[in-house]
Design goal:
Number of domains: 1
Low-confidence stretches: none
Strand content: 25-35%
Radius of gyration: 18 Å
Shape: globular
CATH architecture: 3-Layer(aba) Sandwich
Largest sheet: 8 strands, mixed
Number of strands: 11
CATH class: Alpha Beta
Mean pLDDT: 95
Helix content: 10-25%
Length: about 230
């Protein structure tokens, strides 16, 4: 039951080139910074990364893009990363752009054991090309398949050694659904506590979904676009 690992290096044991990885976060909020840094250090290649976005040029998944470690991105929003745009337009990077809600539901479905579902999102656009269409209540829906990963990397505020997680504010974002959809889920937390210290009524991800957990360090928590109110 003790799932605690010393650091990211130990927690990422078994991650190999060519694998499919899920990474929580929204923009730079709630991303598994330590896991991404270790992936870069390992120098793995031909990775398929499932993430809402690809970070920025010099942070988050942008670091892996700079080193050409990612072969394919399955994501929703990519507007903050010039290197991503360059690789996509040049054909160096394979990209599967998915409506944001569909991406979240495909991850959730993967964790719930639902192989596919119908959604109206994307019908009549390039997103629907080659996909089965059915009508429900007179409205067209397209078939989307669940997403799963060899490893899922998530970032939480607090966790215990059983893998129970609590996220803080908007840093929750994609982390809970991705935590359920990895064959092996690695959670990095800001604070690792003893069992019983977390209020069971406020657990966001039950430990049954988490195989490895470690306390991260040196978090930058960058802000993509800092906006302040005028006086």
């Amino acid at each position: 039951m003790n799932k605690v690992y010393k650091n990211a290096k130990e927690a990422l044991a078994g991650v190999e080139s060519g694998m499919t990885l899920m990474l929580g976060g929204f923009g730079l909020c709630g991303i598994p910074e330590n896991c991404i840094a270790e992936l870069m250090e390992l120098g793995l290649t031909d990775l398929t990364c499932i993430s809402n976005n690809a970070g920025v040029d010099d942070f988050g998944l942008g670091l892996l893009l700079q080193k050409r470690q990612i072969k394919k991105m399955i994501s929703s929003y990519v507007g903050e990363n010039d290197e991503f745009e360059r690789q996509m337009l040049s054909g160096e990077l394979e990209v599967d752009l998915i409506p944001q809600g569909s991406l979240a539901e495909r991850c959730r479905a993967g964790g719930a054991g639902i192989p596919a579902f119908f959604t109206p999102a994307g019908y009549g656009t390039e997103v629907a090309e080659g996909k089965e269409v059915r009508f429900f209540n007179g409205k067209a829906h397209i078939l989307e398949h669940a997403l799963e990963a060899d490893f899922a990397f998530v970032k939480a505020w607090k966790g215990d050694r059983y893998g129970n997680l609590i996220y803080k504010g908007t840093a929750r974002n994609f982390n809970p659904v991705m935590a359920t959809a990895g064959k092996i889920t690695v959670a990095e937390v800001e604070e690792l506590v003893e069992p019983g210290e977390l209020d069971p009524y406020f657990i966001h991800t039950p430990g049954v979904f988490v195989q490895r957990i470690f306390q991260g360090s040196n978090y930058e928590k960058r802000i993509e676009q800092r906006t302040v109110r005028t006086k």
